[in-house]
Design goal:
The protein is α+β, with helices and mostly antiparallel strands and about 260 residues long. It has nine helices and six strands. The protein folds into two domains: about 170 residues, Beta-Lactamase, CATH 3.30.450; about 55 residues, Winged helix-like DNA-binding domain superfamily/Winged helix DNA-binding domain (Arc Repressor Mutant, subunit A, Orthogonal Bundle).
């Protein structure tokens, strides 16, 4: 897809979500860190605040230097679009369109209860492509539900998913259902929630490379309980071992 056309389409998609609204000044600091806790972090990452009304980035964290090699001051939305792998541009547009469509159908009070998650490839300053896990949640909207700002986090997951099909998921927070591996061409179907809250906590730490003993200490449970959760997750998903469990969790967006 030609880059100029791609940028125009991205702007058109997000204009539909915020038409007529004006963002207010926010004091993000404490709330920002609280919301970041809901993000899956299994590698180097940076976060940012996307101002939908102005199609600009209000904030970019210093972590972008580690992930992409650029300083926060260099990063703009258009600059980011330039770094997206050409083969991933159509997928990116489909995912963003579906995300706006999904969020626009939610009741206003549910807008902050969902995390949009998908992956794509970005080009670093050294011209090497890495795979990014994109996660975003709404942090500001107007009384009518028009989106104003989102908080996003980009994690380098190249070591976890060096190749494979990009996956779009809508992860429910605060007890809301999740929509996993969404087919952008079809009507949504609610995902089958096979993992408990505790199992997801254990799985997240397994993906981060923690051992059972370490996980037990972090969650204040015994090593035997951690092993039982791990075996249950492997069994209920028809997998053979922990490696398959971790691989499927990354590729299918279970957390």
């Amino acid at each position: 897809m030609e880059l100029t056309v791609f940028k125009e389409e991205v702007n058109n998609i997000w204009k539909k979500a915020t038409s007529g609204s004006t963002p207010k000044h926010l004091s993000f600091q404490l709330d920002l860190y609280r919301k970041l806790l809901s993000f899956f972090q299994a590698g180097d990452y940076y976060y940012y605040i996307f101002n939908i009304k102005t199609s600009s980035l209000d904030l970019v964290s210093d972590g972008i230097e580690t992930v992409l090699g650029y300083t926060p001051s260099e990063m703009t939305l258009q600059f980011l679009m330039d770094k997206l792998h050409p083969e991933d541009r159509p997928l990116f547009l489909n995912f963003e369109f579906k995300a706006v469509e999904f969020l626009s159908q939610l009741p206003v009070e549910k807008l902050m209860d969902y995390k949009v998650k998908f992956d794509f490839r970005l080009r670093r300053k050294d011209n090497k492509y890495i795979r990014i896990l994109h996660q975003a949640i709404v942090v500001e909207h107007d009384p009518d539900g028009l989106l104003l700002r989102t908080l996003g986090l980009h994690t380098d997951i190249t070591h976890l998913k060096p190749d494979g099909r990009p996956v779009l998921s809508f992860i429910g927070l605060n007890g809301e259902p999740s929509y996993i591996d969404v087919d952008v061409q079809k009507v949504f179907s609610v995902s089958k929630e096979t993992l408990s809250r505790r199992e997801k906590q254990v799985l997240t730490l397994l993906i981060e490379g923690k051992l059972s003993k370490e996980i037990g200490e972090i969650l204040n449970i015994s090593k035997q309980t951690v092993d039982r959760h791990r075996k249950n997750m492997i069994g209920k998903n028809g997998l053979k071992n922990t490696a398959e469990l971790v691989s499927n969790a990354i590729k299918k967006g279970w957390i």
